[in-house]
Every structure is written in C-alpha cells, then in structure tokens.
Amino acid sequence: MDTNLSIDQGLAVASESAPQISGEEFFRIEGVYTGLGAPIAGGDVDRWLLVDGPQIDSEVELFDELCWRLLGDGVPLWRASLHIGTLHPQIRGIGARWWRDRKVIEDYRILHGSEATDEYRLSPIRTTIERGTPVRRRLDGPIPEFPLLERIRKAGGTDYFALPLNRTFRRFPTVAWATDRPGGFSDADIAKLEAINPALAAIAETRAVRRISGNLLDTYLGPQAGRRILAGQIFRAQGERLRAVIMMTDMRDFTGLSDRFAGEDVIELLDDYFDAMVSPIEQNKGEVLKFIGDGVLAIFPAEDDEDFAPSSLRALEAAIEGLRQLAAINQGRRERELPELRTGIGLHLGEVIYGNVGASDRLDFTVIGPAVNLSSRIEGLTKRLLRPLLTSSAFAEICPRPLVSLGLHPVRGLFEPVEVFGLPD
Fold first, then answer.
1. pLDDT tens digits for 129-188?
2. Which three-class secondary structure state does DSSP give residue 408?
3. Phi/psi zone of residue 293: left (φ > 0), alpha (ψ -120 to 50 degrees), beta?
4. Residue 13: in which H helix or E strand, if any?
C-alpha cells in the first residue's frame, strides 16, 4: 500500500470523515475507500487467496474482497482488521480495517511509539501480536479491561476473534474478525476463519517481506535506486547515462565539532543538519544518493534531456530552502548556547553514469563522472569564497533565476580555472 494509494479494481475514494468507533490514537489513517459492497458467493476462499490473491497488488483491495467473500460463504462479518508489522524509520506497521455496514475499508499506518500508549497496552490483540496467542471474546457484557472491545460492543458487536499469522521480525501479523449477529460467531464460522488462516498467513508474509525490502532500499538507497535494484539492476558495471543536476553539500568544521562534543551530541547535530538538507531535496523531486560522512550527494534528473531549466530551478530552490531551514535550526541552537551549523553547497549539471560500482560482492548504487567531480570541487570553493552556495557557469546559464558571477577560480584536478556563480547579495 503506497501512501498515495490508487485503487483500480473496484475501490474508489470515499469520505475520510466516516464515523469512528475505534479511538485507536496510535495510528494514522491514510485513506478511506469504498469497498466492493456486496457478498461474493462461491466458497473455496482459501483457494482464492492462494491462486488469485497474489495477483492483487493492493493489500487494501485484497482484504476488502476477502471479507466480502467470507460474507458470501456465510460468515456473518461486521468488522475486520489486518495488522502487519514492518521495518521503517517512521512506521511500525501497516493495516486495513473493513466495515460491512459502511461498505468502506480504511488504510492506516501504525506509528513508532505506539507500544508506549494505553491504547496499545490495553489492546485485545496485544498478546496476539507479541506472543501469537489467539483471542476470542463474546461481547455480551461490559469489558472495561479492553476499551476497544467495549466500544465495539456498544456499537453493536457481539463477538470478536483474533488470530496470529506467520511470525515476522519478532512480532506476529494479526487478523481480527468481529460480528454483530445475535449470539456471535457459530462454531462453523470459527472453523471457516481458522481454515483460511494458513492461506492468509502465507499471502501476508510474502507481502510483508516484499514491503520491508522496498522500505529498506528506499531508506538506505533512495526510492529511484531502490526500484532499479528490485527490478534486477544488481550487476557491477551495470548503469545508464543520465542527465541531471548534481548537488554536493558539506558541513563546515565537522571535525572540530566532533572533537568538542560527545558522540550522542554529534549524532543529534548530524541529524539536524541532514533534516535541513534532505527534506527540501525530496520535496523538489531530487534524490539523495548517499551521505558521505557529513556531506550529501543528490541528483535532480532532467525530465527532458534537452532542457535542464526545470531541474536546475528545483535544485536551486532545494538549496535555498535547505539554508533557510538550517538558519531556523541555528536560531534554536543559539538560544541553547550551542555552536551554529554551517554548510557549503555546490551545484553543477551534466551527464553522469547512474548505476553499480564496487567489488564483486559489495556494490554501491551511485553516480560517477566528471560532472560529479566538478560539483564536489565547486562545493569546496565555498570555503575559500565564504559563500554557502556556489554554482557552475553551466548551471547559471541554464537556471531561470538570476545568479551573479564571482569570477574565475582554480580548482583541484583541472588545468584551467572555472567561473563560479552565487546568489545576488
């Protein structure tokens, strides 16, 4: 499930103001979607899961159809939820929550820190998630020890049944079923839900591993590089020619700061610095390829090989916004009597090789070429010229925003000096 989820087989966006009864404050709803809306007869739900389930790209769509098929097979579902853990620096897990009467399904994210909340500690599926213990509770009287079940009961629920799926990364994905039929689930209903659980567990496990692989590649390599690697671009010397704007940044006096502060404080200031630099890059359609110590290498691919103007404008705006955010961080650091963070940014454009380099069994997905080298040299000139941002003449010629020449300057590795440009004073 992507955060900008697009459902293309029977699900359409519904109102996000649908009434809630859960009160589960530790998760964030990404979207509310109209479901298929009618029971699907045919039986053999577990076979459908294994044969047709892998062909359905969206977990939300898969779970919606599963619930309507169970209804068509006679299971009196009213509410259902699917929780799957993941590895992500911001998100602890993902999930889908289905409602029969509303004919909607919700796509949500469980945030880190949720395990410390009362909502999680008092959740009926906490033992299912942590120890793989099934939970069955008939909702025929007050249940003060489980606030969620009490809310479900007051809304009309009569029975609740949660099952663990295959364990992944120390936790169990969990599916929870609820009914509003008087008397709750029958023994035959429970048997059907238990019968499909192995098939659902197999599908959920495969999808969880695939999602985690994508999350980790996006987090450590960036989304563009991650997609290329998952598509099979994994061989050394395999790459493509790409025309792009290259950005190099470097924090000033990082060595001195490292010597003066404890390791934890150094990590904190690095995180502050990278937050200021990286978020504007991503917001302007750039991609961070790597952190080089206290530096950043990023690219802004040209959408048209013959027109660098849009990507140069995005790169310049990212650099300016990064400096603005760094200034805001420094305001807070001054108030705490901490040294300010300073940076140098170099911008250049040209053709690069985008792909794998490295040893036979240890590769790096990056960009190489003379354009990358020159952007690094231009960034180095920011120290000498006491400017936080410099560009090449090639960049200044293409960029729609006015830049001023700062003259010709020698750079290491080149016989001829290069002309560099900066922002108007």
1. 999 999 999 999 999 999 999 999 999 999 999 999 998 777 899 999 999 999 999 999
2. strand
3. left
4. strand 12-13
Alpha helices in 344-407 (DSSP H): 370-385, 393-398
State the burial class of residue 203 (Cβ atoms within 10 Å of its Cβ: 0-12, 13-18, 19+). buried
Distance of CA 404 to the CA centre of its chain: 38
Q: Per-residue confidence at 233, pLDDT binned at 50, 70, 90?
A: low
Strands 295-301 and 27-34 come out as unpaired
> Could you tell me the CA-to-CA distances from 7 to 11, 56, 107, 354 in Å, in that order?
5, 10, 11, 32
CA distance 318 to 285: 9
Two structure tokens written together for 230: 């998952």
- Cα 253 to Cα 319: distance, rounded to the nearest angstrom: 19
Between CA 201 and CA 174 the distance in angstroms is 9
Q: How many other C-beta atoms are found inside a 10 Å radius of the C-beta of residue 397?
A: 13
In order of start, what are the domains of the chain with their CATH numbers? Answer: 12-220 (3.30.450.40), 223-422 (3.30.70.1230)
Q: What is the pTM of this model?
A: 0.69
